[in-house]
Amino acid sequence: xxxxxxxxxxxxxxxxxxxxxxxxxxxxxxxxxxxxxxxxxxxxxxxxxxxxxxxxxxxxxxxxxxxxxxxxxxxxxxxxxxxxxxxxxxxxxxxxxxxxxxxxxxxxxxxxxxxxxxxxxxxxxxxxxxxxxxxxxxxxxxxxxxxxxxxxxxxxxxxxxxxxxxxxxxxxxxxxxxxxxxxxxxxxxxxxxxxxxxxxxxxxxxxxxxxxxxxxxxxxxxxxxxxxxxxxxxxxxxxxxxxxxxxxxxxxxxxxxxxxxxxxxxxxxxxxxxxxxxxxxxxxxxxxxxxxxxxxxxxxxxxxxxx
Length: 307
Description:
Elements: H1 2-29, H2 31-48, H3 50-53, H4 72-76, H5 97-133, H6 135-149, H7 153-164, H8 168-176, H9 181-194, H10 198-205, H11 210-218, H12 223-246, H13 258-265, H14 274-301
């Protein structure tokens, strides 16, 4: 009998090890997940260790060093002004462009993460409550979601930001209160599927309260869908922030926002095209990495991807 129990325990341990190895191999073998996750991690590390990666102040102006071209102008065009002191050149106010790009990653990541946190809290709460309780509560929340979907995000954001003046806090709050609808719709749909499962029925049968069922049974099982929606909304929030800043109604100078850098470089597009190209590439890469990460998480967590 003891030998049988030992063999069963050893078999269970072997199965757990095999499952872990299979999961690790799936993660490492998924190209989108690795590229998106690795690229996003690299940008996060660059943003966190920005003071160690550059010796310039992103706000320091030097009018004697305006419009210095990037280092490759010295290689291909023999421009004597270009050099390693400012590898990516300087802007019309003499600020180091590489430093502005590095610190701009902080703004974009902070805005994307903060907007997702606000919209996730609102949308997940409404979606889970609507899906779990149903009836009149579901109808009321569905009406609120429909009302929100009838409001164009860009126009409403422009109107609110122009009234309250553009600032980092205002942009985060405005976008957070406008981008929760996808969370609500997805969470409601997933909750409707989960609440009919046997483990939820068993929790009701033993007398668990609705709050406890939601916190311990529903939310852990909607986490995968929540992560996927969060990555999508983070990319959307970053694009909206850059758009508002480009229009002059988002992040205000002298903060190094990539959208603001695009707006400031607009008059230079025909003479110093690199000023508008570099922040555009940085914005493109950040959104690309976030989307690739979301696609990878979706593929890995899908039922057919777990085999």
